[in-house]
Protein: Methyl viologen-reducing hydrogenase
Amino acid sequence: MSEKKVRLNSEWLCDCGGCHVAIVDLHEKMLRVMESIEIQKCPVLTDEKGYPEADIGIVTGAIRTEHDRKAAIEMREKCETIIAFGTCAVYGGFHGAGLAHSREEILNHVYRKSPTTKTDLIPGNSISSLEKMVIPIDEVIDVDLYLPGCPPHARFIFEALSSLVNGTEPRVVQETVCAGCNREMEKSEVTAVRDSHEGIARDDVCFLSQGYICLGSVTLDRCLSPCPSHGIPCTGCAGPTMQILTEPTRDIRTEVSERMSKLTAISYDTIREKMEKSAKTYYAYAMATKMIGQKPTFLVRKWIAESEE
Ligand code: SF4
Ligand code: SF4
Ligand code: SF4
Structure:
């Protein structure tokens, strides 16, 4: 480890704050991090409002407002290495589901007509205006390291920070959530897709075999597979595998439908249609990235409009 401490800034854009809490979740490992890193700016740990020069810049959250864009540019100018930290920064995150609606629909629903959040503070008046759409940070600034996960598990955060401090390449993980799941895929005679609240799923058999849609096989493991291990199907919050992202003919719904139809008596088309109708769930986390949005099969607005008719 270098004797001089590595200077770190972090900034959050449009997000839930969970990624910054995940940094604090390093618990006692935080003490080891602090031996070699000086945290200069971090919304949950320091009161630094400016952007000091830094070696590492962690950016969480997507670009949603004018403020987010300016903050991302400031971070890029002041930090030697930028980490897109968390699914929101890497793929746009769940805010991407907003792409299914127009900017005006969102302003009306959230700011003008909602009985619980009704306010005169329309973005663009006295608070930062909304960008036309949600975008991942690499559409605005150059990114040096991508660390998806919602949030990334503390193990991957520690690995990434340690690698940067030691000047080594961070380990590239290619495993899917299935790799860490103990459920067995087996052929069944299940004839209908079930919603996650329907019935009680066996805890030793793959959700797909039981008729529940689980995105574990198309999702990169950045979490150590907690959901299927605790009885909840994976909704893909860590973002898709590289295979899904980079191969134009592969897509979340087609891959899962193919696998599930082979494991059950449910037809490929039935599963695919169900996933299209619930696209705001199954595509939420990566909808805003061009890698998904530009797939020839991607018609999410159409599917959602039809399902809401
Ligand atoms: S990636 Fe997940 S945990 Fe991190 S800020 Fe976005 S929504 Fe929150
Ligand atoms: S699809 Fe889901 S339940 Fe099945 S093995 Fe993969 S993670 Fe586990
Ligand atoms: S939804 Fe999937 S990717 Fe997200 S934490 Fe659960 S298992 Fe991991």
